[in-house]
Batch of 2 targets.
Target 1
Amino acid sequence: MLLPARKRNRQFRPLMITGRLKPGVTIEQAQQEMSAIASRLAQKFPSSNTGRTVSVEPLQNNFLRADVVRNLWLLLAVVSFVVLIACVNVANLLLARGAARQRETAVRVSLGATRGRLVAADLRAVRAESVATGDGGGSRGDRSSSVATKPCGGGSGRRSGPAAHEGANHGSDHW
């Protein structure tokens, strides 16, 4: 949002606009219309707009350098590998708990428990352990993500990007 003093200052230049084209409008058509607007502004405000151009480009990570994109992909791979290790550890934990339950199952069989009761008891135990493990991991993950994103403005309830301005009319109804 520009302050009123900045709106009146025609020399203020750090402006990048992101928009969505109407269905059926090509980038070339949008470029022609934006160039026409830029030339009208140059005629109306020659001291500040002469020689200024407008560029319409598709939004495709062209705002990040190639080495940054490569590093982000590498970070994604590392994080995915860590999540894979965590999932294998949880599966291993559940298998170990099942193996530990073998003795309990053997005692129940020797006392005359039927197959249906054994399955029901095992399902209850596995369900309870899985829910406890999932709830604990989910709450820890939620807490750690909110702590980790706090320096970046995460968890503030503010939205940014195109979704934050959906439905807002910014004077460009023709696209």
Note: The chain is about 60% helix and 0% strand.
Target 2
Amino acid sequence: MQTVVRTRDIPIATSVPLFFQLLGCSIQVAIAQAVLLAKLIPQIQSIAPSLTERQIIEAGATGLKFLVTAEQLPAVLKAYAKSVDIVFLVSAAMTALAVLAALPIEWRSVKKDKGKTKNTVAVA
């Protein structure tokens, strides 16, 4: 960044990417939670129809095992694993989009002596 912008714009040029990094993480967490719940709740309710959305959400990841019987637990764990897999796929897709968005940014070296090598002698 510092090599592309004017000296007076360096504070803004370094703070804007930081802002968007933090914003992107916040948005990704919200998307991941929405995807997880959208995939997990219907699967859990098909395994244990007596459970409500509220019970599933309030139980959380560790409390799900207390809401179902021992026979239902393996199916619940598989449903949870499938839902988390989808969250990882969404995260990978968002990362790919971020990389594509970063490609057009100009890339310059910050080294002053480009292409020159310095001969240094180590003194023991």
Note: The chain has one domain: 7-102.
